[in-house]
Amino acid sequence: MAAGGRGLIRALHSSPCPTWKRAQSGANGRLKPEYDAVVIGAGHNGLVADPVSSQAAYLQRLGVNTAVFERRHVIGGAAVTEEIIPGFKFSRASYLLSLLRPQICTDLELKKHGLKLHLRDPYSFTPMLEEGTLNRLPRSLLLGTDMAANQKEISQFSRKDAQAFPRYEEFMKRLVLAIDPLLDAAPVDTTAFQHGSLLQRLRALSTLKPLLKAGRTLGAQLPQYYEVLTAPISKVLDQRFESEPLKATLATDAVIGAMTSPHTPGSGYVLLHHVMGSLEGTQGAWSYVQGGMGALSDAIASSAATRGASIFTEKTVAKVQVNSEGRAQGVTLQDGEEVRSRVVLSCASPQVTFLELTPQEWLPGAFVKRISQLDTQSPVTKINVAVDRLPNFQAAPNAPGDQPQGHHQCSIHLNCEDTLLLHQAFEDAKGGLPSQKPMIELCIPSSLDPTLAPPGCHVVSLFTQYTPYTLAGGKVWNEQEKNTYADKVFDCIEAYAPGFKRSVLARDILTPPDLERIFRLPGGNIFHGAMSLDQLYFARPVPQHSDYRCPVQGLYLCGSGAHPGGGVMGAAGRNAAHVVFRDLKNM
To answer: What is the DSSP letter of 352?
Structure first.
């Protein structure tokens, strides 16, 4: 079944796969001329932000009805499952779940609507590129929830680090505990303190509670935690550990999806963003979704549909309608049809929402300038691969019968033995060149979910970086450049797992321009904008507009470009919905 050469590696194009059917609301699910709320984009945040699904009790009492318009043939935004080749189902963009807020799972009864998770334990595997012997395999670092087992693994590289690791984990857990409440509320409304009415000032005071609670949680250690959030992650890790394999493995969470080096100030927050999740009561757990990430979006959509929402695919919003008083009053679709509404929520990026869909005459010039200057650099090229066998790593040879083992279910970190490797990969991209030794996170979701591939075969997700959006020397990301880069990635994998290239049946290569074109991720950025300290909390997407409202009344931002940022979290959608509920009751 192996491809046996580039000539048999097909250029792949997405084809619709069986997915959640359109919500049936109103007269046979037909589009109505008017709704209470319109949501632009059926990404997971847009579905969560759907007021009908998020706060059914409130809106049933208010009589709110909602329509969601999705540009593509499939819902979910970047959280989609697509059958790229017959029998192989890929989480084509996002591929792991951890950050989804527990309240959303409970409120929307997602398990009742079909959500099934495969928690991963162990969860991280970093093989070494080193010569083995007859009596000793190349070393590797395998991490999971068993602390004693983790310490045994780490002691291969440093006994001192093995002793320090539990203290590091407890330190980070406390920081997560402090930050967690900030994710579920709009940032402090500083404008209301200065210019708001008495009632608005009192409401603004209530938004201080999560900040005060965070300060109490951190206590006297606040300066140390401040350093974690603002310093380069390399500095944070160097203070605690000495072994490079451990430091580099932990550092991957600080740079993944970000055009940053472990030596970049503020990279510590990105690490925190990737360890603050909780699934089924397990802090920091990551899972595969049964049926791929699209199954999560399907479950959210199903929950919304049962509460009366209408969800339409292949319905592109071309324009936000604004009335003569400067208030959003609906949307115009690409086919010219107009749909009126009391409020409009946009799950699209800030750039698409405010620079393309909103009439510019209703936006202050300074606001437009700030939006246009947002940092959206992306280092990511996602490669989806169909293979006819499990990768066989020299550091952990496959068992007889080729059955998946513990390390196969992990995030497998390649070219990650040393933080210097990560920095050098970053430096290549800063010069406009794809990394010579890319950082690779290899995942095999079919190791836990056999429904994704035919018997004996597997789907492999390669989240790779660093690849610049714009190449040096006037080059563009054409098929030749994409294949050259993918070949380099496959050569790297081959060094760790000989035979990988022969197992490849087909591949789907998504560079930053592809991610932008297909999923409307600005610059290919998976977070809708950099998760840097200057673009977080008060400043997401821009200062004075971090409360999901914008200069156009009745228009709200509810996607990853809003607080608290990207990842399959749903918090931005849920928080925006709360703001909309309050505003609707006052209209």
So the answer is: I
Q: Name beta bridge partners: 387.
A: 458, 504
Contact 374, 351 (CB under 8 A): yes
Residue 289's beta-bridge partner residues? Answer: 117
Average the pLDDT over 348-358 and give the result. Answer: 96
Instruction: Report pLDDT digits (tens) over 65-75.
Output: 888 999 999 99
Rounded-to-integer distance, Cα 166 and Cα 162, Å: 8
Say how far apart CA 239 and CA 261 lie, in whole Å.
17
Site of tokens 């997407």: 541
**Cis peptide, bond prior to residue 16, ω within 30 of zero:** no
- Band of the pLDDT at 394, cuts 50, 70, 90? very high
Give residue-wise pLDDT tens across range 316-330: 999 999 999 999 999
What is the pLDDT at residue 15?
Answer: 36
As a whole number of angstroms, the distance between CA 114 and CA 302 comes to 9
Domains of the chain are: 34-82+92-116+291-374+528-585 (3.50.50.60)
Q: Say which residues have a Cβ less than 8 Å from residue 535's Cβ, sequence separation at least 6.
A: 374, 375, 529, 541
Whether the CB-CB separation of 157 and 243 falls below 8 Å is answered with: yes
329: helix, coil or strand?
Answer: strand
Q: What's the CA gap between 200 and 204, in Å, rounded?
A: 6
d(CA 95, CA 569): 13
Q: What is the 3-state secondary structure (H, E, C) of 36-80?
A: EEEEECCEHHHHHHCHHHHCHHHHHHHCCCEEEECCCCCCECCCC
d(CA 579, CA 587): 13
Banded pLDDT at 11 (limits 50, 70, 90): very low
Alpha-carbon gap, residue 387 to 454, rounded angstroms: 10
* Residues β-bridged to residue 119: 287
| Nearest-angstrom CA–CA distance, 432 and 472 | 4
Confidence of residue 26 (pLDDT cuts 50, 70, 90): very low
As a whole number of angstroms, the distance between CA 335 and CA 329 comes to 18
> Which of these, 207, 183, 146, lies nearest to 276 by C-alpha position?
183
What the block records as the tokens of 234 is 């390399």
Pairwise CA distance, residues 154 & 473, whole Å: 43
Give the pair of three-digit tokens for residue 485.
């880069």
- pTM for the model: 0.91
The CA distance from 541 to 562, in Å, is 6
Angle at 397 between CA 396 and CA 400, to 5 degrees: 135
Q: Phi-psi category of 298—alpha, beta or left, where left has phi over 0 and alpha has psi -120 to 50?
A: alpha
